[in-house]
Design brief:
The protein is built from one helix and 15 strands, in the order H-E-E-E-E-E-E-E-E-E-E-E-E-E-E-E. Strands 4-3-6-7-8 form a five-stranded antiparallel beta sheet, with no helix packed on it. The chain has a four-stranded antiparallel beta sheet with strand order 12-11-14-15, with no helix packed on it. Strand 7 and strand 8 form a beta hairpin. The longest helix has 21 residues. The radius of gyration is 20 Å and the shape is elongated. It starts with a helix and ends with a strand. 16% of the residues are buried.
Length: 196
């Protein structure tokens, strides 16, 4: 029994190392800030499908694309001169990693006001424990919620605001069925569904 526990701990550590080493692969650089021609350089250490989305402050989609083939680099040119002055969001997603930049368009230039990075949590479970690792780049307060198939809240907990959060939730007392775990911070919500 101790061997199985040790094996599960080793596997969880390997996955945690993989998550940490996988994060930081995505780079999004605004090489030019002229509204007539803004150049965005996107790079990744691995070949991945790249998703891009531009939205306004109200969340309306202004532009979106997804590469058809996996790429390690992509340079995009945008003409933001037709946009009204205001706040916009530029989002790039590869695999489980995302970079979101808050942009301000004013007086013919584009300014990056803030950058938000997130990596989806990693989950693994067996009949006894649900384990997860979450990298909290913003060091925001993180909460976890467990729901049953009827969306009834079964449990919730504050996880703190550490950069690396690793927890195990005992689930052996749960009945057979479908469940959801939600991890959230100030702006991000991640959901994981599992069946016992």
């Amino acid at each position: 029994m101790k061997t199985i526990g040790t094996f599960i701990t080793i596997i969880l550590l390997i996955f945690a190392v993989n998550i940490v080493s996988a994060s930081g692969n995505l780079k999004v650089n605004f090489a030019s800030s002229d509204a007539d021609l803004t150049v965005v350089e996107i790079s990744n250490s691995n070949f991945s499908t790249i998703e891009i989305e531009v939205t306004d402050d109200a969340g309306r989609d202004l532009y979106s694309m997804k590469t058809k083939a996996p790429l390690a680099e992509l340079n995009k040119r945008y003409n933001f001169s037709n946009l009204e002055e205001g706040i916009y969001y530029y989002r790039v997603k590869i695999d489980s990693e995302e970079v979101r930049k808050r942009l301000a368009v004013e007086n013919g230039t584009v300014h990056v006001e803030s950058i938000r990075k997130s990596v989806e949590p990693y989950f693994v479970h067996d009949e006894n424990l649900l384990k997860f690792t979450f990298l909290n780049y913003q060091n925001e307060d993180v909460k976890v919620y467990v729901y049953d198939s009827k969306q009834q809240l079964l449990a919730e907990a504050d996880l703190g605001n550490d950069f690396s959060i690793q927890r195990a939730i005992p689930i052996k007392e749960l009945r057979k069925g479908n469940y959801s775990v939600v991890i959230s911070n100030d702006e991000d919500v991640f959901e994981y569904d599992f069946t016992l």
